[in-house]
Design a protein that fits this description.
Number of helices: 16
CATH superfamily of the largest domain: Bira Bifunctional Protein, Domain 2
Oligomer: single chain
CATH topology of the largest domain: BirA Bifunctional Protein, domain 2
Low-confidence stretches: none
Number of domains: 2
Bound molecules: histidyl-adenosine monophosphate
Length: about 425
């Protein structure tokens, strides 16, 4: 029997993993520029952490959790990072030890989705959370950070969409207004929205169904349901984005699918992605830290989906030739032993090297060195052993010379 990977998961093979490393390295650098530090939380968490944070009626909790029953509890594979980071912030007393915290994370998330282009069951987030401030300027900085990350990854042509959902009270007024406005239209809404009308009417606003969209577009919902403070907050965010010359579109129907959001929400879309067009998304969640048992502090964050970044980015593949990588070819049994000692010594001096373990001919081994993009080939046979030298071939210039083993390190390191 041959095994296949689970639908909606991917093998990242060596030819692609270099690109992943580049993306991760660049992201780390950009996060550092904005004062963030890395946090690594477990892949498994208590299921109830997400029920509580994302909301029982959210699609993720209703349909997409990978659950792991354990005694009288249920664990789950984390579907997103925000709730885990907030849990870690509270559990490790970061509020008392560091206060305002800027934390970033890179890693896999799991959602039981119907797989399609850009929609996987195991996918990866590059995300961050700034916990401990209500400042609208922090919203500006966070959106600017997402913009910088995308630019640094050589991604162009995206749109940043923003909205303000208001505080918990404002969200409630909006839901009441929606109930009133949509009551007469209920039979025309899709079955999902008929259900949402009862459970989470806000989600009707960003339903993708044509008929629902047409009904919603006539509702003329703008920011009139925002209280004075939330309206002021929105103005300050827009002014800040203008000041930093960050282009954005105000989308009054952008509500996001997770319950924890309050005030600023944003989404970055890209036209090359097809139906799943969000490169990333985020927003404020000013009540979540308190709801999960922590202090009453505001917070904001976002996450970019790495697989979708890869669909949109034009980043060149990492450099093809591994200049300092050496490939050793031994000819004969005596040379094999000496070769084993030689590459062990080179590796311990920090020089990457490899050798043949498949009994290839000299020609076959040279071809292998070429395939591996080795910068140098070292040849060690009876002649070399007798003379106490190694034959060194520079694969870029084709130059070949004899060299004493003790001089190799200097030669290969340059
Ligand atoms: P989200 O919108 O659920 O937000 O996910 C963020 C991004 O992850 C999406 O925009 C998309 O690029 C990617 N993504 C989501 N689901 C999938 C999937 N099934 N396959 C491939 N990529 C996917 C959050 O998760 C929030 N925690 C973001 C946040 C952080 N808000 C505040 N802080």
């Amino acid at each position: 029997m041959s095994y296949k990977k689970i639908p909606g998961t991917r093998d990242i093979l060596p030819e692609e993993s270099g690109l992943w490393q580049n993306i991760e390295e660049l992201s780390r650098e950009v996060f550092c520029l904005y004062g963030y530090q890395e946090v690594r939380t477990p892949l498994i968490e208590d299921e109830s952490l997400f029920n509580r944070s994302l909301g029982n009626t959210s699609e993720i909790v209703q349909k997409q959790m990978f659950l792991i029953p354990h005694q009288d509890q249920t664990y789950c594979l984390r579907p997103e990072g925000t709730a885990s980071v907030v849990r870690a912030f509270i559990e490790n007393n970061l509020d008392k030890e560091t206060g305002f915290s800027k934390l970033f994370y890179l890693g896999p998330m799991f959602r039981m989705e119907r797989p399609q282009k850009g929609r996987l069951r195991q996918f990866h987030h590059i995300g961050c959370e700034a916990i401990g401030s209500l400042s609208a300027d922090l919203d500006v900085e966070t959106i600017s950070l997402a913009d910088s990350l995308l630019k640094c990854l050589n991604i162009n042509g995206y749109t940043i969409k923003i909205n303000n959902l208001g505080c918990a009270k404002d969200k409630k007024s909006l839901i009441d207004a929606l109930h009133k406005a949509l009551k007469g239209q209920l039979p025309h809404l899709c079955p999902d929205c008929q259900r949402r009308y009862e459970t989470n009417a806000l989600r009707i606003l960003d339903c993708k169904n044509e008929e629902c969209r047409s009904i919603v577009s006539k509702l003329r919902i703008h920011d009139e349901y925002l209280c004075r403070d939330c309206a002021q907050h929105f103005i300050r965010v827009k002014e800040g984005l203008d000041l930093l010359k960050i282009g954005y579109e105000i989308v009054p129907h952008l509500v996001r699918g997770l319950d924890y959001y309050t005030r600023t929400v944003f989404e970055v879309t890209h036209p090359d992605l097809g139906a799943q067009d969000a490169l990333g998304a985020g927003g404020r969640y000013d009540n979540l830290v308190k709801e999960l048992g922590g202090p009453d502090v505001g917070a904001i964050g976002f996450a970019l989906g790495v697989e979708r970044l890869l669909l949109a980015c034009k980043m060149p593949r990492p450099q093809a030739i591994r200049r300092s990588f050496a490939y050793l070819i031994t000819l004969g049994q005596a040379a094999e032993k000496e070769g084993m000692r030689l590459i062990d010594d080179l590796r311990k001096s920090g020089i990457a090297c490899d050798t043949d373990y498949e009994n290839r001919s000299l020609k076959g081994a040279m071809r292998r060195a070429d395939d591996l993009k080795a910068g140098f080939v070292l040849i060690l046979g009876d002649d070399e052993l007798k003379k106490g030298i190694v034959t060194l071939k520079n694969m870029s210039s084709g130059e070949q010379k004899e060299i004493r083993p003790e001089d190799l390190k200097k030669e290969l390191k340059c």
